[in-house]
Amino acid sequence: MPDNAAIPPFAQATAGAMGSLVSNSIVYPLDLVSTRVQTSPSASRGNAKSTSTYGALAEIVRRKGISGLYQGLGTDNLSNTLSNFLFFFFRAAIVARLVRPSPSSSSSSSKRPPPTSLSPAQDLAAGALAGILSRACTTPLSNVTVRKQTHSSSTSATKEKGKGEGNEGEDDSSDDEETQYEDEPALLEIVREIVKDKGVLGLWSGFPVATLLSITPALTFYLTNILTRLLLPTASRQSPSPAQTFLLSALGNALSTSLLYPLILAKTLLQYRDPRGRRVYKGLVDVLRGTIRRRGVKGLYKGLESQLAKGVTAHGVTMVVKGRVEEGFVQAYLAAKRRGRGGE
Known about the structure:
Blueprint: H1 9-39, H2 48-51, H3 53-64, H4 73-99, H5 103-108, H6 120-149, E1 152-154, H7 157-164, E2 179-181, H8 187-198, H9 207-213, H10 215-231, H11 234-237, H12 242-271, H13 284-295, H14 304-342
Helix pairs in contact: 1-4, 1-14, 4-6, 6-8, 6-9, 6-10, 9-12, 10-12, 12-14
């Protein structure tokens, strides 16, 4: 694997974005299922079709066919590709700044060699800051994606709408209604719907939780680096095989996702629109308190199975593709440099 410090931020960002596009297209059905399981109002009634990965997959295919597994793919691909491009760009720029001191500082501290790598704390901080900046730009698209994936109606929506207003935070389900998922509306239609429901700032619903989740990619990188040092021989750490890259990245993602999953669930529920048009939760504390009250602590891990299946595959594929694309950038750069020398 090429040395990231030697690759310009734009090249790293492009490689990460391409990896994200490929991986997200492969695992998107699992992302859709994960969101449906997390927001399913049937969970409190023990509906297996709504609470298990296989059951939710089978239900979508039965109702909508195979194409139903890709509802909202376009918006999600745009959101993930842009988010990963910005994350890798900001992270590479921050890392480059930290490991390469400015000329003024280098002249004043010539006795000390410049740092060549980040400390664990700096690594986590760089990733968290990059995550916050990228999520600030892409949260509106994330909100639109969740609405597309869960666009639904209820047989009792018109009867319950009046009752639901003003009852924020009471429940995320109703025992006397059944949610029917519908075809996804157009992007601008959803944007207008969100602005009508919550105002312009509603496009950033879940962003405070997203800032907390900004530690996720940084934690994933950190855990993957630890696993690499623990599990791979020294000779293989700089250039692991695609299989090793996939497995280590997937395992690092699984560990970080498991640790932070309650926040992932809370962000989705804050972005979700109840079929009756009401705002279900007021904020992070309301989500956590309400979920524990109704389903116990285990309710905070509702949908973890499908989230892990999606996350480990997507991150593993992303890092494999990113590594190969980065190698291509390095080879192209070296070839251009050789041609430039030959022309002198």
